[in-house]
Amino acid sequence: MAGSVNKVILVGNLGKDPEVRHTQSGSKIVSFPLATSDTWNDRQSGERGERGERRERRERRERTEWHRVVIFNERSGDVAERFLRKGRKVYIEGELRTRKWTDQGGQEHYTTEVVIDRYRGDLVLIDSNRDNGNGDAGGYDNGGSRGGTNGNGGSWDGPGGNDLDDQVPF
User: Could you tell me which residues belong to the region Disordered (predicted)?
Assistant: First the structure.
């Protein structure tokens, strides 16, 4: 295989409100933790019924993974800053990046992040909780018809509304 692919797709919930910082040149950087969860029924045997028969017991299990998301895309960063709040469900498309940093004590650390870069990646709000507490309906419209914010003509239920069904089939 001549090439390689570094693409991450996540659907999860924000662990806290986005943190917005600015570089010295004025570019916006938005970051937040994103939780993805997997649930399943774990089969455990060993329980005996009233007549002594062996019964299978199912226990509900859940595993949550936390991902650090960093947005360098100006348009997606604006959407994240305006509309994302703790608990919101989002679709994220980006790439994995690991960076090395040194703390104040001189100890080296590595951090792996899901990065939405300047001209790549996507951020889509997918839950129906659009009221962000200040009366704003949470809509975003940049003139397109997709549900994304990657600068390729996306929108999210902007003014005038779309006839999109709020129920996402996944």
Answer: 17-62, 127-170
Those residues with Cβ within 8 angstroms of residue 9's Cβ, 6 or more apart along the chain or in another chain: 91, 92, 93
Amino acid at 68: R
Burial 10-40 (b: 16+ CB within 10 A, else e): bebbbbeebeeeeeeeeebebbbbbeeeeee
Mean pLDDT value of segment 43-51: 65
90 and 125 Cβ atoms separated by less than 8 Å: yes
Reference 60, options 35, 42, 87; nearest CA is 42
Coil, helix or strand at residue 81: helix
pTM over 0.70: no
Residue 2 carries which side chain, given as an amino acid letter? A
Contact (CB, 8 A) for 149 and 125: no
Cβ distance 28 to 52 under 8 Å?
Answer: no
Cα separation of 99 and 34, whole Å?
18
**Over the stretch 97-146, which tens digit does the pLDDT of each residue have?**
999 999 999 999 999 999 999 888 999 999 865 544 443 434 333 333 33
Cβ–Cβ < 8 Å for 102, 56 = no
